Amino acid sequence: MGCSSSKNVTSDVISKHFSLNNEEPLLMTKTIPQSTRHLENYLIIWLYDETSNKFENEIKQLQKLVHGVKTFNNIDACISFIDDIEDEKIFLIISGIYRTFERFQHLSQLEKLYIFDPSYKRNDEKYQNDIIQNIDNLYKQLQENIKLCEMDFISITIVSISLEEISWSSKLTKQQASFLFTQMMKEIFARVKFDSCSKDVFIDFCRLHYMNNNEQLNIIDEFAKNYRPNKALWWLTNQCFLSKILNHAQRTHEIDIIYKLGFFIKQANIQLNHLHDENVLLMETISIVYRGKTMSSIEFDTTIKNNCGGFLAFTNFLIATTNKKVAIDFIDRRLAMHPNMTGILFEIDIDQTVFNEKNPFALIKDTDMNKNEICFYMSTVFRIESVEQTMNDTKIIWFVKLKLIDDNNQQLLHIVASTRNEDIHSNPGYCLGKLFMDMGEYKRAEQFLLDLLQDSTVCSQPRRLARVHNGLAAIYTYNNKYVKALDHYQLALETSLTYLPSNHPDLVPIYKAIGDTYLNQKDYIHALKNYEKAIELLKQGTSQVNTEIITNLHICINKTKQLIESNK
Predict the structure, then answer these.
(1) How far is residue 248's CA from residue 14's CA, in Å, rounded to a whole number?
(2) How confident is the model at residue 201 (pLDDT cuts 50, 70, 90)?
């Protein structure tokens, strides 16, 4: 066992979801997916000789079997398209242009390259082991490699042990923000109820996306007709459109897609609890399970190797096997495709005493399933107990021991306490937007916060609205869009003045930010005016003032005055 959207795609968030409390059903609205949006972890591209259309029949045949086959007859256009892909992996088929093989080797997005030529005469020793001559063989290889890719593409978030509680108001590291994002989403799903039409909305969404793929549409029709809540894990463990979309959305933090699958996630949670009760005697005989994975050496060093003792969570549902050899075989197959990657064998110690209904796990055995595998609920947290290098035949594999921990572990609570805070859940939208920014996902953060401006529950509450405007202003400042930044800082100030007196010290950060924005625009007069206003409010305040803030403001004032003098 083991397990990327394009640059211009952002989440079309239905922002009203985030202001609902745990007593209200989550109403799903029907949205039409963007034509350029990718819902799966991979793309299949067929590049053929621009002087020939002799592969047209084979391409059409493959398009009927596999979703999303894109064709090119110009190599430069093909490479340019691949260069623009950030989150997905590429399975590339080339025909009639063997001389260009080397031009693709540098592409980090390339997962696998196939050469297809039905008329190959085996007179070219260089390529004889790579040539595929039959469309059925090509389809078979694609299916096998896509399955391995999907299994390896489950994301991991890691956070170091913290002696102090992590505060939302502080600037978080990308690692902290990523970990808290997954835990926050898990908390939201635990609190939200979904409308009875949620499944139909998801089905309609999928039908639109797969509208040109009859095979996938048939599976979607089967799902629409036969899916029941007690079949959730069957659909999860059988690789199809549902599990692929969920895995991709969890990796790319596409909240609108995750919400469309919210009904399914909750029902999978319920079924895991039921299966745990049904198989409790069998579960008592299982204490260790295994999961294989590969990643780059840099990613491994910066996440797992350097965080021994820290906490680790897989962002999606985790399927782990009781058979160590199965997990090692998966690693071997992945390393055969990508020998420069690092192979990792997770050995997971299951402490049966820490089971709880919120984060269930269970043996996948019932009348429909008979697997020697344990399924853990999404974003279940483990502790990294040890990281050791070992040899498997001639390959180096890292042996990582994980231990399942209690959801109320005190060290974990220092980190995730804020995700369980009722005040946070009264305004989760802004908090998720801030996590996007701390993760460096500014495009998603921008779209997310802009969608919140369409939410009546946000617009009717000035404190929430001011936070959203501040968040957007910070994003535009980061992207050097100072005019837009200033607009939103001014709106944040205007909104704040509806619930704060004009001399309140809480306005200091806004005046400081407005001053910084004017300074970036080289409008030194207005910059100075806002810095001085911030100082004035601090002097009027009765509470103890942070001397660092005052010092920083005086530096800004002196710098601005010097710039004004030098420009006279």
Answers:
(1) 19
(2) very high
Rounded to the nearest 5°, which phi and psi values hold at 173? Answer: -70, 160
Task: Quickly name the fold that domain 171-416 has.
Answer: Toxin ADP-ribosyltransferase; Chain A, domain 1 (3.90.176)
Strand-pair category, 89-95 with 131-132: unpaired
Both tokens assigned to 5: 């959207």
Residue type, 243: S
User: Please, where are the H alpha helices in 479-543?
Assistant: 482-496, 508-520, 524-540
Q: What share of the chain is helix, strand, coil (3-state, %, to 5)?
A: 50, 15, 30
pLDDT confidence band for 99 (50 / 70 / 90): low
pLDDT, tens digit (0-9, with 9 covering 90-100), for 387-415: 999 987 778 899 999 999 998 899 998 89
- For 108-125, the pLDDT digits (tens) are 899 999 988 877 665 555
- For residue 139, the SS3 value is helix
Q: What is the pLDDT of residue 544?
A: 66
- Count CB neighbours of 466 within 10 A: 23
- Domain 42-152's class? alpha beta
| Nearest-angstrom CA–CA distance, 488 and 472 | 7
Concatenated DSSP letters of 319-353? EEES-HHHHHHHHHHHHHH-TTSEEEEEEEE--GG
β-bridge partners, 321: 290, 373
**Strand (E) or helix (H) holding 65:** helix 56-65
Burial of 160 (0-12, 13-18, 19+ CB in 10 A): middle
Q: Residue 43's closest CA among 64, 70, 61?
A: 70
What is d(CA 313, CA 297) in angstroms, rounded to the nearest whole number? 19
Amino acid of residue 240: C
CATH of region 427-567: 1.25.40.10
Q: What is the pTM of this model?
A: 0.83
Residues of the chain with CATH 1.25.40.10: 427-567
Region(s) of the chain under CATH 3.90.176: 171-416
How many angstroms separate the CA atoms of 327 and 306, rounded? 23
Domain with CATH 3.40.50.2300 in the chain: 42-152
| Contacts within 8 Å (CB) and 24+ apart, 547-550 | 549/508
Residue keyed to tokens 């021991």: 401
Decide: residue 261, CB within 10 A, 0-12 exposed, 13-18 middle, 19+ buried. Answer: buried
